[in-house]
Design a protein that fits this description.
Elements (H helix, E strand, L loop, with lengths): L1 E5 L8 H6 L5 E4 L11 H10 L4 E6 L5 H15 L6 E5 L10 H16 L3 E7 H8 L9 E5 L25 E10 L8 E6 L20 H12 L12 H13 L10 H7 L3
Parallel strand pairs: 1-2, 2-3, 3-4, 4-5, 5-6, 6-7
Antiparallel strand pairs: 1-8, 7-8
Length: about 280
């Protein structure tokens, strides 16, 4: 699948023309350096949504501490509240992060926890060199998907250009996508734009939620309880799948035409995470 990632410097975008040109998904910058909503975000979100494009968001990070990572993650959640967003991407590539060592991994994991607890997918964007130098040495401490930038050509290209498979980033982690140029041309956008390939179905791009049942505990039970509360129930978000959570699950399954077994599997998660 071919798509684009955009921010305010891409100007006002004609999303109808963008989709007609062959773009199949969009990744939008959500917040700026001050952790305020990016100037273009709401406009781009409404535009991409209006033509039916799957939407992810990204946050270019200047973070050097775990505490700042958690507050940045919350700022993104505030920006996307109530919106149909699949994955939140943490963009780590800034020079101020180059000497953080293991702290960078702690930052990513702290950010990941906040995003996944809220029910969104999570991944990391970075360049291949940054990945190989600063993330790969600590790969065993990090479990998430990656969107990697590697530009095989500096030429201006359109969506018909197919980058050579031999230039595809080779990484240890799951490669979700490849940003293969910053010199793309797409109808509806004046100037160059980043072009991306993704290697999965966006409809299946949420967290790989685990099966939950009575007795389950932990962060995913908290996600479940929060989703049920969003649907009108009144549960304590305590991460403990007890009798009250079981009763709410069974009622939710009954109301939504699902198998009423009190087990939160694929079908129940799919319904709960509809946006």
């Amino acid at each position: 699948m071919k798509g684009i990632d955009v921010a305010k410097w891409n100007g006002v975008i004609d999303w109808k023309k963008v989709k007609e040109d062959g773009v199949q998904f969009a990744i939008l910058k959500a917040i700026n350096k001050q952790c305020k909503v990016e100037d273009s975000f709401n406009r781009n979100y409404e535009g991409a949504l209006s033509v039916g494009l799957p939407i992810d968001v990204y946050n270019y990070s200047y973070t050097t501490t775990v505490s700042k990572a958690t507050s940045d993650a919350q700022a993104v959640l505030n920006a996307i509240k109530g919106k149909k967003v699949g994955t939140v991407w943490l963009d780590v590539e800034d020079k101020i992060q180059m000497n953080l060592g293991m702290t960078l991994i702690d930052i990513i994991n702290a950010y990941k926890y906040i995003i996944e607890k809220a029910g969104y997918g999570f991944g990391v964007y970075t360049g291949l060199s940054f990945y190989n130098t600063l993330i790969k040495p600590y790969h065993s401490f990090l479990d998430c998907k990656f969107w990697i930038a590697r530009y095989p050509s500096g030429a201006v290209v359109d969506l018909n250009f197919e980058p050579a498979e031999s230039k595809k980033p080779n990484i240890i982690h799951a490669l979700w996508g490849w940003q293969y140029t910053s010199s793309g041309k797409v109808n509806g956008i004046s100037g160059n734009v980043d072009l991306d390939i993704r290697y999965n179905d966006p409809a299946k791009d949420n967290i790989a939620y685990p099966v939950l049942r009575k007795g389950s505990k932990g962060v995913y039970v908290e996600v479940l309880q929060k989703k049920l509360n969003d649907a009108g129930y009144s549960l304590a978000v305590d991460g403990d799948f007890g009798n009250k959570t079981l009763e709410a699950v069974k009622d939710y399954q009954k109301v939504n035409g699902l198998v009423v077994d009190g087990i939160v599997g694929v079908k129940t998660w799919e319904k709960l995470t509809e946006r």
